[in-house]
Design brief:
The protein has 695 residues and is mainly beta. 6% of the residues lie in helices and 35% in strands. It contains 5 helices and 48 strands. Strand 10 and strand 11 form a beta hairpin.
């Protein structure tokens, strides 16, 4: 493995913390030590599916068997599939659909070559049932779905049609005007629907049956894929050491009766991503979020698309048609490409997707963040006449790293403009107001600690300023320079963003021609919680500023009280639970974290939030905002995670639960297979009412 998700996450979080794009820890995959459930060898030729898969000599035969073995392991770590030699993966698994699923994995899998010196080729042969056998081309299909978390590393992936699946006649097709020597009359032969289609048939007369016989010539043509729709919905990564191409070979078949759709020529891979996507290799014709399939497209979850390394993308586009009612945050991160070519964002506002529709303002409900993380990034020239629209999202540009900012990348239509990663940009404020229009964008500016603006001219329009800490998590000093300017009236035009207004204030120093952010001091303290034991609490020291990131102490991990309870984590004054080692944003001047004690170690403990009023059955229960609405659902989620430690159900509001007695007079609730702890969320106790209904 050349790169792991954990390594990538370090970069991702530096972007996300500035824009508050994703909840902390969303991508915190860990790669566990190799063991019986962490890797499997697959050998399509010599493998046997009854093998253990723990070595090349004990390889299993199929990817499906490898997935089965690995899904028996821990689902919060990444497992590796080592391919011994090349592998052909044939898929046709969604009945009556033009879409196929690559693998049905629930665990994060990395597929790579067993021998790095002799790279394996993973050939994926697709037969989408809908139309696959009856059409010469099926434009835009099949849809190729990456169902679970997946990494491709150190191998060559070829995506193409299943050439063993032949074309068939889509209708009853008649061949007329047939004549035969020695046979009187003119005859017709009908090729029945769904019978094999060939380019050429020879027709002869069968005297015994007194009928025409059709004999195929050559081989039965296969379906060629025109455009391949590549759909993701979780975590997907292509490392620099992998290659991904589409098999664009065209079967030589011709269609004399024009029974099948035709195309000028095969297109490439159109990627429509959801979830988190790290694309550092592969040849794609297009990457753009798009509501192509209900099985995989942006919902309300955030979407991340990182492009760099050896990737070859003909067109990168902003989102166009998304699912109705969803408001995702979509973040593009553009790094430099290894070949020295510009990493070109060819349609930043999605206007090219709209085609004939005249676009002058944002048309999607998504918030789009474009992060320039390389020095050789270009944008197309399209601009918008307005940066906001009722009920729509905004476009925001970030320059991350020294040398990434270029004035040529400014466009009317960007709502906000951010500097981070140590970038210091000289900007003419007049470039942020064009043609005297009130709403061309740049209503908000953002500065990360360590980055700064230099204004070459006077700022004459009001701006909101957002100041954030850098990757270290703490303010570098109490006085943080954010804007250099000789304009002594600059503060008349700046207002701190609400997200950081409680963290400090702005001040202008005429001697240094600098606007400073003065951070508020704050304290961090730990409390022992509900115990009579004497607990040595973690010491806190150093400079803390409101709004900075702080890592909660792990000093009490493993501590056992006299009553047998063990340390399981911390709660803040708002009642939010955190595990030791979690990173928090210090919200106020006084921050107290109280130790929590339970009957099981929380090293693998899960928490599900329950809210009977505002929760939803299909939520994941991982936060109060995504709480489930029934105790049965909460327990089923905790049971399904397969841990041997306790699971916690936090009651966000009071809850009433009804149990029904059997005919024998006994009362039962519902099955649960692990230790369940029910407790209250936040301050104040919640009530759990159990209603008994006898039968």
């Amino acid at each position: 493995m050349k790169k792991t998700p954990t390594r990538i996450v370090a970069f991702m979080l530096s972007v996300m913390m500035l824009a508050a794009l994703l909840p902390a820890g969303m991508l915190a995959w860990s790669v566990s030590a190799s063991g019986s459930s962490d890797f499997v060898y697959v050998d399509a030729i010599n493998g046997v599916d009854t093998n253990t898969g723990l070595s090349a000599s004990k390889a299993v035969k199929t990817l499906e068997k490898a997935v089965e073995l690995l899904d028996d392991g821990s689902d919060d770590t990444m497992a590796t599939i080592y391919l011994v030699g090349d592998y052909l993966h044939s898929i046709s698994n969604i009945a009556g659909s033009s879409q196929v699923v690559f693998l049905n994995n629930t665990r994060h899998l990395c597929i790579t070559s067993a021998d790095s010196a002799n790279r394996s080729t993973l050939n994926v042969a697709m037969d989408a049932p809908l139309g696959a056998k009856k059409e010469r081309y099926y434009a835009g299909a099949p849809g190729f779905i990456i169902q679970g978390d997946m990494t491709w590393d150190g191998l060559d992936v070829v995506l193409g049609p299943d050439k063993t699946v032949g074309l068939t006649f889509p209708v009853d097709y008649k061949v007329t005007g047939l004549t035969f020597d020695g046979v009187e009359g003119t005859y017709t032969y009908t090729h029945a629907i769904d019978t094999p289609y060939y380019d050429t048939f020879t027709y002869s007369w069968d005297s015994e049956t007194a009928s025409v016989v059709a004999t195929p010539v050559g081989s039965q043509p296969y379906k060629s894929i025109d455009t391949l729709r590549f759909l993701t919905n979780a975590y997907f990564e292509i490392t620099e050491t992998a290659t991904v191409v589409k098999d664009s070979s065209v079967d030589p078949a011709k269609d004399p009766a024009n029974q099948w759709k035709t195309a000028v020529g095969p297109n490439g891979i159109y990627m429509h991503p959801a979830g988190t996507n790290i694309i550092r290799s592969g040849v794609f014709a297009l990457i753009a979020p798009y509501n192509y399939s209900s099985l995989s497209n942006p919902k309300d979850e955030d979407v991340v698309i990182l492009i760099g390394g050896n990737a070859s993308i003909a067109s990168i586009r902003g989102p166009y048609l998304l699912r109705a009612g969803v408001t995702p945050v979509i973040t593009y991160i553009l790094e430099d490409l290894n070949n020295g070519e510009p990493n070109a964002f060819t349609d930043i506002f999605g206007t090219g997707f709209a085609k004939a529709v005249a676009l002058t303002e944002p048309f999607s409900a998504a918030t789009v963040n474009i992060v320039v993380a390389g020095t050789n990034v270009t944008f197309n020239s399209e601009q918008l006449a307005a940066a906001t629209a009722p009920g729509k999202g905004t476009f925001n540009v970030f320059f991350d790293g020294a040398g990434t900012y270029k004035s040529s990348l400014l466009r009317n239509g960007f709502y906000s403009f951010h500097l981070k990663g140590g970038e210091t940009a000289t900007v003419n404020p007049n470039d942020l107001v064009a043609d005297g229009k009130a709403d061309v964008g740049y209503a908000a500016l953002g500065v990360e600690d360590g980055s700064s603006f230099t204004f070459s001219e006077v700022l004459a329009s009001a701006k909101t300023l957002k100041v954030t800490s850098n990757d270290s998590g703490a303010w570098s000093s109490k006085l943080i320079p954010v804007i250099h300017t000789s304009q002594d009236t600059i503060l008349d035009y700046l207002t701190l963003d609400a997200s950081c207004a409680s963290y400090g204030s702005l001040s202008y120093n005429a001697d240094t021609d600098t606007v400073y952010f003065i951070s508020n001091d704050c304290t961090v303290n730990y409390a022992a919680g509900t115990t009579i034991d004497s607990i040595t609490l973690p010491a806190t020291s150093g400079y803390y500023g409101v709004g900075t990131r702080y890592t909660l102490s792990s000093a009490l991990v493993g501590t056992v009280l006299s009553d047998g309870r063990v340390f399981i984590g911390w709660k803040d004054s708002e009642g939010t639970f955190y595990q030791a080692g979690d990173t928090v944003i210090l919200p106020g001047l006084f921050n107290v974290y109280t130790a929590q004690w339970g009957w099981s170690s929380l090293s693998n403990t899960d928490v599900v939030y329950l809210d009977a009023i505002d929760g939803l059955e299909n939520n994941n229960g991982l936060t109060p905002a995504t709480a489930v609405n029934t105790l049965e659902k909460a327990i089923s989620l905790l049971n399904g995670r397969g841990k041997i430690t306790a699971g916690y159900v936090y009651l966000v509001k009071d809850y009433s639960h009804t149990v029904t007695g059997s005919s024998g007079g006994n009362f039962t609730s519902f099955p649960y297979t692990r230790h369940i702890i029910l407790t209250s969320y936040a301050t104040g106790k919640k009530s759990l009412t159990v209603d008994v209904a006898a039968t």
